[in-house]
Amino acid sequence: MFDALNAWWAQQLVLCDWAFTPHPLAVDAVAAEQRLLELGITDRGALADQLFFALGAPSGSADQLLGALEWAALAGAAGWLSQAQATNWAHHLTRRITSDYSDQRAWLSDLRRALGAKGWETGADDRFIDACQALADLESEGEGITWQTLDTELAQRPAPASLWPQAPEAQPWRLGALFRPVVSYPASAADWPDASEWLGHIWQVYDREQLLEVMLWLSAQGERQRWDIEARELLTMDRAQRQEWQRGAVNDAPYAPVLTAFVNQGEPLEWAAWDWLRLVELAWAGACCGWLSQAEADDLAAHAADLVGRRYHDWHAVLKAYMRGQSLFEGVDRREMTPNARHKLLMHAPHSPWRHSLAALLDEPTRQASRTRIKAWRNTPHHWLLALAGVREPDVMLRQLNPSAPIAEQRRADAAVYLQDSLGLHADEGHQVLARYWLPAQAHHLNQLAADAAHGVLPPSQTRFGQPTPDELKQRNAVKGVSRHAATIHMAEKFAFYLHMAFDSGLFEREPLMQHAGALRSCLCRFYATPKRLLEAWFAWESCLPEPEHDSLINEIAWHLEDHGSLFHWLDWRPDAWCEPGERPTLTHFTAMSLVGPLNMRCGASHSWKVLVSAPTFANGSRATTTSPAPTICKSF
């Protein structure tokens, strides 16, 4: 069947020094691929980039449009694109050409100007002029496909189909167009032959396990956590304090001047897209080099789209956030730089993959499949320990793929020293010794104290034993504001950290420790129905009961509460049969402690309040005299 568009396309290829052929794709596959390589187009990813830029080239770029017609023909003949894809690209290009040029004379004239300015090889310019003359003769004689015939054909045809894959699971890959547009789905080595080399050179990632570790880290924490927390701290400072912080931080944090400028100038402190868009690029690289199955890569890209969609309302916000992250990463403020050509095309070109709305990137089955897989990678009790311990020690987020994997000997030794020197735990005592740090009685006391305070039952400000300081009074009065939050997390997060260190130390059998972790998960799931409830309770009690000798965790907790990628929001949140990591005091013990402790007494020493909230109560009802110090290798408490 005769196709006027294909015939006109074939006519134009004569201008590229082709012999005339009735169909533009009727070229030997090997010869077509060799020609692509000669043109510097080495793979399908590079082809997609070239076609994308050519179709969006500025006015007066006739040479780029002609080149794109040739690339599409060669790619279709070589099998890099299907015939339907190649023809669709030609359709888009032809419409662009006829919109820019009113007739063939204008088209050929601009081609001569553009190619002449570039300087053709000796002899090639003569053949090009001859080809131009041949096409001009056909046009004047009304032979072949004239410009008028082409216009009529295009007017009768429906608008061309989208240039980008349309399968629901392929839509999240549009995010990756910031780096390389995906023109063909599913991925193959032809899209990015040197993907594994790129991963090693840019990311120092050399196998599947390392790749997954980095991607899970990007989704859950990435670069953004440190920037977010430091920005939050800078907001509490005046300009002089910010400059002092910048001078002290710049050696270890080259981004410090940029971050300070963002805060001083009121720039939106948002850059999570820097992590999540790079997650998409890594997923595509993993699929191309075979380290990830297509389903795994799809789910990771969909996870990024899920997070992006919950954070940003449009593509402009995504791009701005990404560029802020890039500025911080490079330590160079890019806000006043000339806009990148790719960025301009993505935001404004009618053929951009980003013409799709953010909300349309995910349908519900794709979203649910992604969430199921992401949670499956984080479904062990050990991941609960990582989440809780990671608030104090952020580096553990790099261990999400397999929390039980062997660790460096130095890390193991540090954990063992901490347990022995700071907590007095020794391997010969067995794993059961950890139960002494599960303190339900302490949580009970705090809950009772908060409930009493909410009803106005507080220790008096004036007693015969002395008068509390203003800070102590402020702390006492603040307790009534946390009565709606169970205090279990205030105790349990410390137990989780000790248990995490016990795992790392290698001093104890792993299976009993895992049982403790499972019991901890079950207990916390019953006290807190959602991650949000747990983090809100932790934030409330951390704010209410600060420990002046240690840095506060409220900024870290607030970050996990607000960031949808945080590991807390992707844990296996389900209680098992009721159990706790340690022995729970009997009703008799609870009653005795309530009677002995002046928690709800309106008289007595004002300092009884301070003692009761600082000294932990063991499961058997006895009191410790001091709290245990935190390890020096992480944020202390």
Automatic annotation (TrEMBL):
Pfam family membership, one: DUF1266
The DUF1266 domain, residue ranges: 201-356
Domain of life: Bacteria
InterPro entries: DUF1266
Protein name (record): DUF1266 domain-containing protein
Organism: Vreelandella aquamarina
Record lineage: Bacteria, Pseudomonadati, Pseudomonadota, Gammaproteobacteria, Oceanospirillales
